[in-house]
Specification:
mainly alpha; elongated
Length: about 120
């Protein structure tokens, strides 16, 4: 019968096969995740070698604060406007004509509106 050990605080400790297997499954999973993350990491030197502008990379990945503020204000304004409408008016009309156009607005080929 094979004996399984793990090193704990610089000492070999005998363990069961299940403990040994669980430990190395987690160990291999951690190595896999580190390798996967390393593929997505980039250094300043890599960008300089390939000629990529650092400003372009950093600005492309960051949403400007002004955009976030405007988006939030627009959402608040939208909800204020929706609160002024009654339940029927809050529904988005769909055209469900026999042609199956399913437009969010009335199509020019029929006169049928569906608020559902």
């Amino acid at each position: 019968m094979k004996e399984y050990t793990l090193i704990v605080k610089r000492r070999r400790v005998p363990v069961t096969y299940e403990v040994y297997k669980a430990y190395y499954q987690e160990y291999e999973h951690e190595r896999y995740l580190k390798n996967k993350a390393a593929k997505h990491e980039h250094s300043l030197e890599q960008f300089i070698e390939t000629g990529v502008s650092i400003e372009f990379v950093s600005l492309d990945s960051i949403t400007p604060v002004e955009d976030e503020v405007l988006k939030t204000e627009q959402i608040v304004y939208l909800y204020r406007c929706l609160d002024k409408l009654n339940a029927q008016e809050q529904q988005i009309p769909f055209c469900r004509c026999r042609g199956g156009c399913n437009l969010w607005r009335h199509c020019c080929t029929c006169q049928y509106w569906d608020f559902g």
